[in-house]
Fold each of these.
Amino acid sequence: MTDDNLNRALFTKRGNLIYHISYGYEKNLAEDIRRQVKSTYYDYDISRTIKVTEADRVIWVVNLEDAKNLILVRLEEGEMEEVQKLKKS
């Protein structure tokens, strides 16, 4: 745990980092990523964030919700992709 974030990491037997995953909330989201998400999903609340760092890649996974829907978006290198959209019951 660091601050409010749960962290997971995988290392090789020699101690080299393979990947790092940090689970957080909207306040842990990088400001440029937050602006990009909110510019499209302005009526949605950001409920959870996941930051995956692997080699030279940084991937953000953001959970969004409103009264009727849950949306999962993925961001990497300035590109945003809606991965899943579910209706709340």
Note: The radius of gyration is 14 Å.
Amino acid sequence: MFILKERLNIYKIISIILGFIAAVIVFTNGNSISFKNYNLFALFVVFVGAISFALFSTLSKLERRVNLSFSVFLYFFWATIFSFISMLIWSKFIIPDIKTFILILINGAFINGLTYILWIYALSKEDASKIAPLVYLSPVLSLFWIAIIFKSNINILNIIAIVLVIASGLLVTLEDRL
């Protein structure tokens, strides 16, 4: 709203609230008291990461002077530099085995690289407020992957979160027609 000068209306506010509630349900498994059991520094880091991603998305929408792929390359270049520095400060350097290296390459090129290109492209074609609710799909879709890969059950709270995310996305998509 402040950077992109997009108007905030009641539909967008409700959409943001619904998406946020869905993310909290997934994160806490419906028990907001469980926040007390988390490491506050870890929650702070997650919060800073979320703010950084939001700022990245917003500034990406403003950047139209350079090639989209080049913008993503620059993002990953600087992310690599800062990640390497962080690793040297808080961890140690270990050369990955070939299987791990292939997984890292797949993660970097496809799971992150391609999705960031598509994300920035989507932001360039529509109001950020209409695209942003899709971010709330991440924790919900993670539930499905966890259920498939780790044979975990999807409970009623997960279903509620999915419904809230879908409602959040539909609300801003349909606001022009309401």
Note: The chain has a mean pLDDT of 78.
Amino acid sequence: MNQEISAECDYLYVKASGWFSLVEAKRTFVELLEAVARHKTKKVLFDGRRVTGEPETIERFYYGQFAARAVKKYAEFGVSPATRFAYVLEEPMRDPERFGETVAVNRGMFVKTFDILEDAFGWLQIPPAHQPLADPDK
């Protein structure tokens, strides 16, 4: 998996692509948390519409568990436990049952998955003036 991270006005915008693997997802999430700490932001928009694969239920569990634990761990590096993470994914990456999201939320993480980019901006309370231009490929 690859990701491009850009610091916008008051949030991080992450554009991810590639084939999903749990190992890569964990590695890139740590990179993301390092950027959150560096930029001292409390909002992350993860645009994973170009990520492909079909995660198994257990992988969704492990990723949600890992992400929630990592956010807590990175508090010592300046990541606020109240940081909001909005994931924009397409099925089958986005689980309609939101199992991974539920695992992370139950462990104290502020995260929500979406299939529409504008809904994610709304949940993060990012005004249209601060949103990047639409990606012509997605």
Note: Residues 2-130 form a domain with the Transcription Regulator spoIIAA fold (CATH 3.30.750.24).
